[in-house]
Write a structure and sequence with these properties.
about 75% helix; Four Helix Bundle (Hemerythrin (Met), subunit A); mainly alpha; binds fe (ii) ion
Length: about 130
């Protein structure tokens, strides 16, 4: 399912919003590469790219949280870690031949991401809004 970015997803922190938009675009790209039958190698590359960018984005968020003593830092970091694990698991299931589950995977990734943005990320906005440079 193609996920359209909505302005209601924005946190009002330019750097973070741009990264979140890119994550949505990468999940959509995964969806497209699967639907267009681009082949397993391409899907795997897109999967890997999504994971790499997630890692990068999470490190950016976590650094700001940590540097400013954000009290939810540990919890938030754990949630990021679980998400990365989830992507890894889905990727290896796909590579083992479980191709049909990919659409479910994409739905899961999208709904996790949007919920995470709307709930956990939104919580740090009042505290960290000015801290992302
Ligand atoms: Fe986050």
């Amino acid at each position: 399912m193609y996920l359209e970015w909505k302005s209601s997803y924005e946190l009002g922190i330019d750097k973070v919003d741009k990264q979140h938009m890119r994550l949505v675009a990468l999940i959509n790209r995964l969806d497209e590469s699967h639907r267009d039958d681009k082949g397993r190698d391409t899907v795997e590359t897109v999967f890997q790219g999504l994971m790499d960018y997630c890692n990068y984005h999470f490190v950016v968020e976590e650094m700001v949280m940590k540097n400013h003593g954000y009290r939810e830092y540990d919890n938030h970091k754990i949630k990021h870690g679980l998400f990365i694990e989830k992507i890894k698991t889905y990727k290896s299931e796909y590579l083992k031949g479980d191709i049909t589950s990919l659409l479910k995977t994409i739905d899961y990734l999208n709904s996790w991401l949007i919920e995470h943005i709307m709930v956990e990320d939104r919580q740090y906005v009042p505290v960290l809004k000015e801290k992302f440079h």
